[in-house]
Amino acid sequence: MKSNKDLINYLVEKKVLKTPRIIEAFRAVDRAGFVLPEYRGEAYENHPLPIGEGQTISQPETVAFMLEKLDPALGEKILDVGSGSGWTTALLSHIVGDSEKIFGIERIPSLCEFGRNNLKKSGISGRTQILCGDGTKIIRDEGPFDKILASAEAHGAIPEEWKRELKPGGKIVAPVDGSIVLSTKKNESEWEEKKFPGFAFVPLVSGEQNNGKNIPEKTPFPEKKSGKTIIGIFAILAGIGILGMLNEIYYPHPSFEGRKRIAIPQGAGSRVIGEHLKTEGIVRSKWAFVTYVFLRNKASDLKPGEYTFFSDMDIPEITNDLIRGGATEILLTVPEGWAAADIAKKLESEKVVTRQEFLNAAGYPNTDYRIDQKLSQPENLADTFSFLADKPWYIGFEGYLFPDTYRLFRDSEPREIIEKMLENTDKKLTPDLREEIARQKKSIFSIITIASLIEREVRTDDDRAIVSDIFWKRLERGIPLQIDATINYITGGKNPSVTREETKINSPYNTYLYPGLPLGPISNPGLSAIRAAIYPKKSPYLFYLSTPEGKTIFSRTLEEHNAAKRKYLR
Question: Is 58 a catalytic residue?
Fold first, then answer.
């Protein structure tokens, strides 16, 4: 991953990062500002990075998982044990706000200073403190806390000192013996504990074990080793080997971005397939693949064929595809009102095509290709589909990708998917509908555009027909349509009402700023919305609004409309 945005999108798509305030903290606190200079190029990769003294800055996915379990809130007093680079401390500070209630504790003096310097450079140092000392003891001076987060692994149980310094109702999220433990203090004597296994951390070292004053970069082995010491060393080395293998198996390590198609020949065994996957850059370790397949007892189930693999696939996902066989079909359901960007996101999550590949072929949202000439422009398919004849050449296929359920091969090209959807639109726009559009001296483009607005604004067929009449009357009279859904299309938001500032955004899709139709459709409408656009129901109304419950309120005058807003929206 090349940017903080890429990292955040990855974590959101993996459904690890979910809460808006935590996502916003990841946006505001760039991990690159908390790693050593020599590792800046890897700052956005989803793995731990060394920060010195045998310690690491934690894996982003693990940090996101722990923050989601901790659920930090505005104004809470939170302790971050093992703050290290200061990245997690900074994330917490951004989430809780300017309350000066975040305390980091770091045992190792050099790392304590490293974290403090990072916070200072990020501009957060005035809102939080990093204390140098043993996290199992020093907290009594600063507690009690609403919540406690630990980045270093405890053994056996969460330290009692932490539990004593937690307020009733508070939470501790900490790694214990290979699991992340969420411990909630229901009252002074009752605790609720949940465990989430499968994580690896550096160990928590208390003051008795090392006071942190003389920690060599490399600890030499003693000259004479007991049998137990040698066994311990081999156990550690074995553990490191296992962790390395697990990393190869459960985290993607591709040498490419996006997707890659390969062919698995008839008769290829797991070792040949593993070597082929490594050569193509789909896995980094042939033997990690072979080992995983062997342990699952699936070596004989791998099938030949044509496969499409994505750069975010791990070995279990790759194996599952090889077991299913190449060119398998999926069912893609496109709900009414989805935009091309929604379809692209779904196709990428289904491992069919990437978001970028689909939008290159279908058209990017809020885009005028007369201006945005650097973007890949969709192909003109008007010769194949006559209903596209009046669609402006400088917009994509938004509005024309008919919502329905489609059978697609996993190795489908974007153009194949788009043509399948356009063929469906061609069928749905029956000769009778096209004749009626022509009789009204309207264009298919204007009908599809109005239908896309109706689809995003109104739910019932009766209300849609009335709103259609309002839209057409406002267009005839030169009154701006002032449709919130067009603003959400510009911003990518989902807000039922938009802000005054948003209505001033300079975009040809802004129906507050510019009268007439937006530059193009803002969603892909279903047949109900298309029919409403063609057959409006005459009414005396010029205004409408939708209540939070989805009911449509119609008004004749601006005064009636403003009264309805005061009644239903405030």
Answer: yes
Q: Helix 87-96 crosses helix 20-28 at what angle (to 10 degrees)?
A: 130
CA distance 550 to 548: 5
Q: What is the pLDDT of residue 228?
A: 55
Long-range contacts of 483-486 (CB under 8 A, 24+ apart): 483/453, 483/456, 483/457, 483/511, 484/457, 485/453, 485/456, 485/457, 485/522, 485/523, 486/453, 486/510, 486/511, 486/512, 486/518, 486/522
Residues 378 and 313: beta-carbon distance below 8 Å: no
Q: What is the rounded distance in angstroms from the CA atom of residue 497 to the CA atom of residue 518?
A: 18
- List alpha helices for 251-402, DSSP H: 270-279, 286-295, 315-324, 340-349, 355-362
Q: Which of 443, 439, 444 has its CA nearest to residue 429? A: 444
- The Cα 78–Cα 119 span in angstroms is 16
For tokens 């020599």, the residue is 38
Q: Which helix (H) or strand (E) holds 410?
A: none
Residue ranges in 478-543 assigned as alpha helix (H): 484-491, 527-534
Q: State the pLDDT at residue 100.
A: 62
d(CA 517, CA 21): 36
8 A C-beta contact, residue 176 and residue 162: no
C-alpha span between 471 and 516 (Å, rounded): 10
Residues of the chain with pLDDT under 70: 54, 98-100, 125-127, 134-141, 178, 197-241, 326-329
Classify each residue of 303-330 as buried b or exposed e, where b means 16 or more C-beta atoms within 10 Å of its C-beta: eebebbbbbbbebeebbebbeeebeeee
pLDDT for 208 equals: 42
**Looking at residue 326, what is its pLDDT?**
67
End-to-end distance of the chain based on CA atoms, in angstroms? 44
User: Position of tokens 């200061």?
Assistant: 86
Question: Rounded to whole angstroms, how far apart are CA atoms 278 and 293?
Answer: 15
Measuring CA to CA, which residue among 400, 418, 391 is closest to residue 517? 391
Give how far the C-alpha of residue 68 lies from the chain's centroid of Cα atoms, to the nearest Å.
14
Cis status, amide bond into 220, omega within 30 of 0 = no
Of the candidates 58, 85, 523, 528, the residue annotated as catalytic is 58
Partnered with residue 262 across adjacent β-strands are: 307
Q: List CB contacts of 503: < 8 A, sequence separation 6 or more.
A: 482, 487, 510, 512, 513
Task: Kindly state the greatest CA–CA separation across the chain.
Answer: 98
Domains of the chain (ranges; CATH) run 4-197 (3.40.50.150), 259-327 (3.30.1490.480), 346-428 (no CATH), 444-568 (no CATH)
SS3 553: strand
Contact 544, 420 (CB under 8 A): no
Q: What is residue 224's predicted lDDT score, i.e. its pLDDT?
A: 40
Are residues 84 and 55 in contact, defined by beta-carbon separation less than 8 angstroms?
yes
Q: Which two tokens stand for residue 285?
A: 């370790």
